[in-house]
UniProtKB/TrEMBL annotation:
<dbReference type="InterPro" id="IPR001638">
    <property type="entry name" value="Solute-binding_3/MltF_N"/>
</dbReference>
<dbReference type="InterPro" id="IPR006311">
    <property type="entry name" value="TAT_signal"/>
</dbReference>
<dbReference type="InterPro" id="IPR014337">
    <property type="entry name" value="Ectoine_EhuB"/>
</dbReference>
<feature type="domain" description="Solute-binding protein family 3/N-terminal">
    <location>
        <begin position="60"/>
        <end position="290"/>
    </location>
</feature>
<protein>
    <submittedName>
        <fullName>Ectoine/hydroxyectoine ABC transporter substrate-binding protein EhuB</fullName>
    </submittedName>
</protein>
<keyword id="KW-0732">Signal</keyword>
<dbReference type="Pfam" id="PF00497">
    <property type="entry name" value="SBP_bac_3"/>
</dbReference>
Amino acid sequence: MAAPGNDAHTIRPERRHTRRSVLAGLAAFGALGAAGCTRVASASGEDGGDLLERLRAQGVVRLGIAGEVPFGYIDRDGNLTGEAPELARAIFTRLGVERVQPVPTEFGSLIPGLNAQQFDVVAAGMYVTPDRCEQVIFADPDYRMPDAFIVRKGNPLGLRTYADALRRHAKIATGTGYAQIQHAVEAGFKENDLVIVPDQVAGLNAVESGRVDLFAATAVTARMVARGSAKAESTKPFVALVDGRPKADGGAFAFRPTETRLRDAFNAELHKMRRSGELYRIVRPFGFTEAEMTTLTAKELCRR
């Protein structure tokens, strides 16, 4: 990795986010993602693909991001940041690729966009699930994450788990494509009764305005988004039950199925950073805790 103090690789966690600042940044970089080639060159897929060699020659890797704090987003100064882009900067520098370039899209378009060669890798903290493993290949997860809620200050309804929310007939919001949709349905909610909002800032606004009783998200998202709110707070993290068993999801980088050589090289550097503690040092400024680091593998999560 390049030295942590290198200006080009400086971690820039955002202290306070508004829907306007996040979306404005996405708009600014949306043009950038579309300005150059809208597609990346197709890999042969033979012997694990040759994308890594081509990225080294180009000197830039295109990252698919979904504008989600703290996983991957454009900050109010127009800079790409978040735990996944910062990890990508560190790892791709080690792999001989000098620059990262964001390609913003909606979360639900990340896998289709990757497989349509609109960018080279998904860098959005994407959970590894069996369904997604049929469409892409994952690096090993760089974090493992429980759920949490954003609720009104003081948590007047006492909402700490999905079971609490079901018992109190709470109105739930969560984000488009979020794993929390499944977690709520597993707890007994009907999917049609959930309020699906475009992002976590909209979820916070829904709680603050009283339109919903809670917004379900990852624990780190809830912590980061509710911080500084005068009307809302995040609950303590908890592990959701899926098929009757506790399930804490792991997030990872995703690659096209043909690009096993790139994925394996990425994994090798990720494992070195995990062992040295460098991985945690990079993600900690974005609200991640040491308890949320993991030694899970993508293979394990793809089987679940």
